Amino acid sequence: MKKILTSIFSCCIFIAAAQDHSENLVQYVRPIIGSSRMGHVFPGATVPFGMVQLSPETDTISYDLNGHYNPDVYKYCAGYQYEDKTIVGFSHTHFSGTGHSDLGDFLIMPTVGPLKLNPGTADKPGSGYRSGYSHAHEVSEANYYRVKLDAYNILAEMTTTTRVGFHQYTFPKSDDAHVILDLMAGIYNYPDKNVWVYMRRVNDSTVAGYRITNGWARTRTLYFAMTFNKPFIQMGYKNFSKREVYGGFWGKFSRAKNFPEIAGRQLRTWFDFKTTEGEKIKIKFAISPVSIESALNNMWAETPGWDFEKVKNDGQQLWESELHKIVIEGSRDDMENFYTSMYHAMINPTVYMDVDGKYKGLDQQVHQADGFTNYTTFSLWDTHRALHPLFNIIETKRNADMIKSMLAHFDQSPERMLPIWSNSANENWCMSGYHSVAVIADAIVKGNAPFDANKALDAAVTTANHRDYESIGDFNDIGYIPDEKDGNSVSSTLEYAYDDWAIAQMAKKLGRTDVYDTFIKRSQNYRNVYDPKSGFMHPRMADGSFRKKFDPFTTIDQGFIEGNAWNYTLYVPHDVPGLIGLMGGEKRFITYIDSLFSYDLPDKYFAETEDITKDGIIGNYVHGNEPSHQVAYLYDWTSQPWKTQDKIRMILKKMYKNTPDGLGGNDDTGQMSAWYIFSALGFYPVAPGSDQYAIGSPAVGHAVINLENGKTFTIIVKNQSDKNVYVQKILLNGAPLGVYFISHADIMNGGEITFVMGPSTNNRR
What we know:
By secondary structure, the protein is α+β, with helices and mostly antiparallel strands. Among the domains are: 32-320, Beta-galactosidase, Chain A, domain 5; 363-550, alpha-1,2-mannosidase (Glutathione S-transferase Yfyf (Class Pi), Chain A, domain 2). It is 25% helix and 23% strand. The chain is built from 18 helices and 39 strands. Strand 10 (154-160) and strand 11 form a beta hairpin. Helix 11 packs antiparallel against helix 12 (513-522). The longest helix has 22 residues, at 489-510.
């Protein structure tokens, strides 16, 4: 594997020295590091938080198989599988490491020879327009992707701006060169996903149009503009719809070639060229959520010329600026793991507005962003845990804009709710809880609230009182969700309890005592699903009894989502002392966590679960899914905090590696990577909405966090090594730190924290 990675990426000699702003940190980014086997690698080109993510697709598996869900489609959540031998084309929109998917819009594929308009199959690539490729001729960097398409001897290169994908294809000499624009391709595709496609010719080198899809986002319209650096000889299309009930009287025209506009449900288009040896056909492809005119405006504003290298370099400089927000010192592997995690953490959420500030809202109307950048792709069940808290340190303005986007979502929502999992002017309602309230609370409590905080609190209260959404009414009335009412009854009860605590913290900060009293009481509802007889959080019936048929190891049909009772029993991040008491005291609590890590969970307990695999499990601890991400830090509330240090360093080594399958689960739009960043630095936000961070075991040699307020927070680690995982002493600004916690103010005020490490445990409380 090391040999493969060396061939993919250029190697630079690393000299262990203090890092500064002059160092090129992009060199350490490895976009292909990820959970390749699970299919959630995003190897393509994008700028930080960009609306365009231009990336290869390696197959076209359908969501539907003989009228049923095709489980193999899950591997292609991000479109790319490292093990695949062929590339189908390059599309402009992707999610990064999600467990469900959509997008994959506007697939482009350059070819030579006889025109083929079907992608073909992986076992017979010559039957369609796909091409074989080799990782030996593949390069993936921040904002740059290159690969040789072996079937056509074409070198494909791509880079981006925020709203424009820039392609550069080096062709052989050919009288039959083509660029295919597949307007029916997509991720998690099925025959009826495309609702409608429209394209018109603007001039002899430019086309524009839109695509409407009904997928995870059920009502999504994306506009585009596409221009070439030379006129095409001719253009054409083929309609792959089996039958369209009504086609009007368009048959009066011969429309197969060079017709100025086309429309339909299942269309593939092509553009013909003659090329000389080594000629570069360049394409600029802009997208917009608002209109064709806006897509054209985005294109001219962001890419006025044809200088591919300039666009690439400008985008990589944006990445340099972002990566330098945390400058670390460490081994080559540490540097690559850390800055790849930084890269992954800064792909999503994504900008969702045009250069003039217009965007489509949840009400499907066009709005003007007033004084903020509008964002989408809020995977909040995942990202409220560590990604948004990370942004509250290094992306304070951007995180505030994301919250303003959530508040705009609330204003435009017909259901009058804050986002649950939102994408492209749609609410997908995926996962449980209403964790946008935790993101908002974390910002307010930490003093990063340049928005109407009281209005935000009102929106949070309204969301938490939406009685007909996923058993909120039962939770509020009886203090838990009955097992008969909801398949995720226990996990939703626990998550609502935490979210309500977050609302209480907002209210406390804002002096809203009545709201605080209500929600701090509701935050204790986690106690109602703990069964002292079984010793676990346990499904409870409407009559108050606990379910008799119960297996705490099983992940399916036990009242939990993406986790089992063993892991979820520890999901009370907001009241760890209360949980310790509930579970019988510190001794039993410590034994419980010890057992979680040491028990070998047989495969049968998660075999039917897409999101949990052996790669993401240590014992019975599931790191590959987010509900357990706080668990290793819970020892800090006991007399044995050294166990946190031991477990953190073990997880960092086992779950994060510099290989194409180097993540132990989905990255989930940056959450897995944010956990790594915090943990490598030595602290973690166990309960977002609190201003406290739990101390772990720093895995870097030295780090400087460059804050937006102009200050720096320096992390000094003495005696760092793989063996010296235990903290012997902590100094905060030169003074001994008597607890295993630091505050948000400690970081944002600037200064330094010093860790003295050693090979043996320090039982100091």
